[in-house]
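Bug #2210: token dump truncated for GTP cyclohydrolase 1?
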Amino acid sequence: MLWTARPLGHEKCVFHHDLELDHKLPTREALLPDMSRSYRLLLSSLGENPDRQGLLKTPERAAKAMLFFTKGYDQCIEDVLNDAVFDEDHDEMVLVKDIEMFSMCEHHLVPFYGKVSIAYLPNNKILGLSKLARIVEIYSRRLQVQERLTKQIAVAVTKAVQPAGVAVVVEAVHMCMVMRGVQKINSKTMTSTMLGVFRDDPKTREEFLNLVQSR
Ligand SMILES: Nc1nc2c(ncn2[C@@H]2O[C@H](COP(=O)(O)OP(=O)(O)OP(=O)(O)O)[C@@H](O)[C@H]2O)c(=O)[nH]1
Ligand SMILES: [Zn+2]
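Reproduced locally. Full output below:
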């Protein structure tokens, strides 16, 4: 059945429970032939000739591109953290801002893209800085809605270092609102998740938002 062609999660990844992935499924690369056939059918549905020279390899290319756009399904937090959690007596805000993000709108299968800013207040544990960007990659490279993406990033940072608080702001342009539909080419969507101190203490939240907005 078609639904069995869902992406594989990593065996030891405990963060995937929300996706209800079936670990007996084939690897995602093994799905390439099925995906290529689907894209070939799509080309025919558009009235194109999938056998014309320029389109001969398009179904396979498109399938590979879609696998890349959704490669976050193949990754799990434990793997990318790679033990880069360090004991450190530091309790001031850590902020990485303007992390580029490319994701796929789950409603229209078109991109939404923008930037992510992540802050946390350490509680004797810090995270390798690049790992914040890697967490963004894991969750953005899936079919998403911006709200869920924002929250998943915040929860992942919380699980990784149990900080006193986490704040995540995502600013994105949705191509489904730009190239089609309401066609609002300048619209941007902002979402945020505030956990712990960032939720409870307006001063901490304000400090974060000021830092995010400063250029
Ligand atoms: N909340 C939220 N909505 C999203 C996101 N990405 C796309 N959407 C919205 O999903 C909705 C789908 O609405 P529908 O009415 O079923 O689809 P539609 O007829 O294509 O809607 P229009 O885009 O208004 O033409 C639209 O309002 C999109 O703007 C997202 O990340 N978060
Ligand atoms: Zn959309």
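Output looks complete on our side. The two ends are 51 Å apart (CA to CA). Marking as cannot-reproduce; reopen if the truncation happens again.
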